[in-house]
């Protein structure tokens, strides 16, 4: 543990995990979450699996300044590594449920896409095409609305710094939804072009 004199704006605290010791140097006005990030960089232990203790008191609130916990230059912090249990977290479960629903929605997009291909290949009588395209367009709008609701569900989840796995999972599912929305938009454009084409004919 370094005994060098720190500047007035910085402090050095000792983080111990069993026999392991780490030195964390950070601004005196840092928040608890800043210490969590530094501990993750020093130890490789994810924030969600960290439990930091100072003089018997758990540092639970990421937004609390370290000074509120009476942490200063030379303070000693105990680090306990918790077993990752994010898969049982209600937010993680909610995200997985949205992802499951998305799979069903993506199948609808695929089915509509195949139906459009059939129309393009002339599998339907010309007199039936316009009505069929109107129905397809209506279904695509409903599918898009369904995916927008899924995005709203994900956006409504309150995920703090201690939910890194949940935030990563949400980001992944959001990307999937956005990609499917783009596919749906392209299909709608295709349908509108077909409707114009058959109207002119």
TrEMBL record:
<dbReference type="GO" id="GO:0005634">
    <property type="term" value="C:nucleus"/>
</dbReference>
<dbReference type="InterPro" id="IPR000626">
    <property type="entry name" value="Ubiquitin-like_dom"/>
</dbReference>
<feature type="domain" description="Ubiquitin-like">
    <location>
        <begin position="11"/>
        <end position="82"/>
    </location>
</feature>
<dbReference type="InterPro" id="IPR039773">
    <property type="entry name" value="BAG_chaperone_regulator"/>
</dbReference>
<feature type="coiled-coil region">
    <location>
        <begin position="126"/>
        <end position="157"/>
    </location>
</feature>
<dbReference type="GO" id="GO:0016020">
    <property type="term" value="C:membrane"/>
</dbReference>
<dbReference type="InterPro" id="IPR036533">
    <property type="entry name" value="BAG_dom_sf"/>
</dbReference>
<dbReference type="GO" id="GO:0005829">
    <property type="term" value="C:cytosol"/>
</dbReference>
<dbReference type="InterPro" id="IPR003103">
    <property type="entry name" value="BAG_domain"/>
</dbReference>
<keyword id="KW-0143">Chaperone</keyword>
<dbReference type="GO" id="GO:0050821">
    <property type="term" value="P:protein stabilization"/>
</dbReference>
<feature type="domain" description="BAG">
    <location>
        <begin position="108"/>
        <end position="188"/>
    </location>
</feature>
<protein>
    <recommendedName>
        <fullName>BAG family molecular chaperone regulator 1</fullName>
    </recommendedName>
</protein>
<dbReference type="GO" id="GO:0000774">
    <property type="term" value="F:adenyl-nucleotide exchange factor activity"/>
</dbReference>
<keyword id="KW-0175">Coiled coil</keyword>
<dbReference type="Pfam" id="PF00240">
    <property type="entry name" value="ubiquitin"/>
</dbReference>
<dbReference type="InterPro" id="IPR029071">
    <property type="entry name" value="Ubiquitin-like_domsf"/>
</dbReference>
<dbReference type="GO" id="GO:0051087">
    <property type="term" value="F:protein-folding chaperone binding"/>
</dbReference>
<dbReference type="Pfam" id="PF02179">
    <property type="entry name" value="BAG"/>
</dbReference>
